[in-house]
Specification:
Blueprint: E1 2-5, H1 17-28, E2 37-40, E3 46-54, E4 61-63, E5 67-75, E6 77-83, E7 88-95, E8 100-105, E9 109-114, E10 117-121, E11 126-131, E12 138-147
Antiparallel strand pairs: 1-10, 2-3, 3-12, 4-8, 5-10, 5-12, 6-9, 6-11, 7-8
């Protein structure tokens, strides 16, 4: 997991060409003007989901196996939890068509994400997005999905 501000995106360009393309895309696009929905950039290998929602008290832990998530806060603030596998147990088995597995877990660390922040979440990293900071807040977030072989 990597968390930073978009101002520092260039530091991470050498991780992979896909991550570089995704971070450049975030920097170059007016994401706040996009309506909620799924936008294919390079088919199913590189796409973006735009979501507007209200943060919540808690959420399920989740992980992905086929995609890297780059979660970018367009507006609002939330906490994203990160948890070690040994602190979690299976809740809903992995669903390959949706590339998601839900887990139960206790503990973990929470990272505050604010407008302009991004987090790169690699496959098998257990995370819990959308958790409120102090009060429930309306969020607009972009989640870029990069296939691991992109």
């Amino acid at each position: 997991m990597i968390k930073d501000s978009l101002i520092n995106a260039e530091k991470y360009y050498d991780l992979s060409e896909g991550i570089k393309k995704a971070l450049c895309y975030i920097k170059e696009q007016n994401l706040s003007a996009l309506a909620d929905g799924k936008y294919l950039i390079d088919g199913e290998k590189f796409y973006i989901n735009i979501n507007t929602y209200t943060t919540r008290d808690s959420a399920d832990w989740e992980l992905h196996k086929k995609y890297i998530d780059i979660q970018y806060i367009i507006s609002g603030e939330e906490k994203i939890g990160m948890c070690r596998r040994k602190l979690c147990s299976d809740k809903v088995p992995y669903v390959p068509e949706r590339d998601i597995e839900f887990l139960d877990g206790a503990g973990g660390d929470y990272i505050t994400m604010e407008t302009g922040d991004f987090m790169i979440i690699f496959p098998d990293e257990i995370h819990k997005p959308g958790v409120k900071c102090n009060t429930n807040t309306t969020m607009k977030k972009a989640v870029i999905k990069l296939a691991i072989d992109y």
